[in-house]
Amino acid sequence: MMNEIAEERLSDRLAIGMLALVYPPEMIERAIRRCGRLGMRNRLLPPQIMVYFVLIMCLFPNESYEAVARLLAESLPLTIPGQALKLGTVPSTAAVSRARMRLGVEPMKALFADAARLSAPGGGHGTRYRGWRLRTLDGRVTNASDFPDPAAVADDGQPGAASSALRVSVLAEDGTGLLLGAEIHPAAPGRPVATAQLLDRLGLGDLLLADGEYACPRLWHTAVAKGVDLLWSVPDDSLPAQPVSRLPDGSWLYRLPPPGDPAAPAARVRVIGAGPGGGPRLATTLLDPAVAPAAELRGLHADRWSFVRAAGQLQALRRSPKKAFRSRSPEMIEQELWGYLLLYGAMRKLSNNRFP
């Protein structure tokens, strides 16, 4: 029994060490400085310590604040030897809650942006198709099961409050699963699922895959304007009644006007029906079936990176049952979400040997 406990503590410290390898102190300090939080000195819980705290809190979601702080205090001297970062005293839950509020969302968001910029897309299995770089746009909306019981008491001793749903949208490299960009915003009715800024990492030579709400006309035309090629699922009722022509592989050519501007020149789009095993109807800017056969494109779309699968991989890493967010306020829930994105990003960087 003692050996099992010792092995578990060692594996926990190794996991924390891997986080510090992907997100070294100087990288965290740059993100904090850019957000103007570096001057927020606190003798026990400075901003740098709190960034690591949030990451470890997400890695061990079933541990109390005190247990997370103890893990951090034990691991920092081993993980970052010779550094000024240390946690000499295990803080109270109330002290941690206040420190999380002082840190806020922006440093976590800035750290993610820095890490994403350093995720230089490269080679590897599944990252390319016939010369195109494969990218996927996907995400999800938090639901009621993600949040604590509104009648419950929060970690800081205050009653919980009902939380609004948040949408997480991610741009990922297929094959490696490296995260190239992300957005988090309220999932309000009528609000776009993602902004044009999320597609800023894309350009000529990229093939963007999308499905569901992310395969929308507005984002389609934003991506095309950047020179991006597309392979998206489309509902049957979104196409004109008559195609322009039928292609040799059984796909069809259509002309689609830009959304909101019927007078604008129509774009040519190739539509691929469901395969023998079923699946969605696909629309693509790759018009030549000799260059991009329908069967291959169906396979690409079916095997694309998935937010749901990524969440499952992260859950397996955490080795603990799914648990609701421990935060109550929208800002602290968003802070947690950035922590989870950073945690998944670290896992993919380690798997693909991509370090700062």
Topology of helices and strands:
Blueprint: H1 2-22, H2 25-34, H3 47-59, H4 65-79, H5 93-103, H6 106-118, E1 128-129, E2 132-141, E3 166-173, E4 179-186, E5 206-210, H7 217-225, E6 229-233, E7 245-246, E8 252-256, E9 267-272, E10 282-284, H8 294-302, H9 307-318, H10 330-351
Helix pairs in contact: 1-4, 2-6, 3-4, 3-5, 3-10, 6-10, 9-10
Question: What does this protein structure show overall?
Answer:
- Strands 1, 2, 3, 4, 5, 6, 7, 8, 9 and 10 form a ten-stranded mixed beta sheet that branches.
- The chain folds into two domains: 2-114 and 309-351, no CATH class; 125-306, no CATH class.
- The chain is elongated, with a radius of gyration of 23 Å.
- Strand 5 (206-210), helix 7 and strand 6 (229-233) form a beta-alpha-beta unit.
- 38% of the residues lie in helices and 15% in strands.
- Helix 1 (2-22) packs across helix 4 (65-79) and helix 6 (106-118) packs parallel to helix 10.
- It is an alpha+beta fold.
- The protein contains ten helices and ten strands.
- It has helices spanning 2-22, 25-34, 47-59, 65-79, 93-103, 106-118, 217-225, 294-302, 307-318, 330-351, and strands at residues 128-129, 132-141, 166-173, 179-186, 206-210, 229-233, 245-246, 252-256, 267-272, 282-284.
Q: Which terms would index this structure?
A:
alpha+beta; single chain; 2 domains; about 350 residues; disordered N terminus
- Rough shape? elongated
Overall domain count: 2
Number of helices in the DSSP assignment: 10
Write the H/E string, N to C.
HHHHHHEEEEEHEEEEEHHH
